[in-house]
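Running this now, will post back.
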Amino acid sequence: MVDGFDARTRYGEAFWRAHHEAWRDSTLNQREYCELHGLPLKRFGNWRAKFKAEPQPPERKLLYRRGGLSHSLSHSLSHPLSHVTYPPSAPIVPPPRDGHRRRFSEEERRRILAEAERPGASMAAIARHYGIARRILCRWKQELAEPTFVEVEITEVQSGEAAR
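Update: finished.
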């Protein structure tokens, strides 16, 4: 008898869980869903509260890049990538590996900054081209700027000249 009771409980829970999942995937509100499927609204609400109280696995967050997913992620590993072409003038900047940062040498930074300083060039477009944030270009510009020194001559001020 105990086994029969457990099987009935598990069947009931599976039934309500399936309806709960279907309701979440639908565009209907709770009342509309119950009326459509002939379910008691009160019982559905009780099961919904029970499922909501269960610990939920953390929702996986997807990180997107502008222009969609990277090419290697959008194909299976067995799919050949022979049809991929890159424009000859565009430098290929590898995407950062998981948990790692890309490193640009000082020479590369200066070359990218020189490209961004050309007349009519957009810093945002250049940054997007190289797969970095615009603020990184601004920071590089500050870091790599040559210090400017101004010659200052200190002279004594006469008491009569200070009053003017």
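Helices lie at 2-25, 30-37, 41-53, 106-116, 123-130, 134-144, 159-163. More later if anyone needs it.
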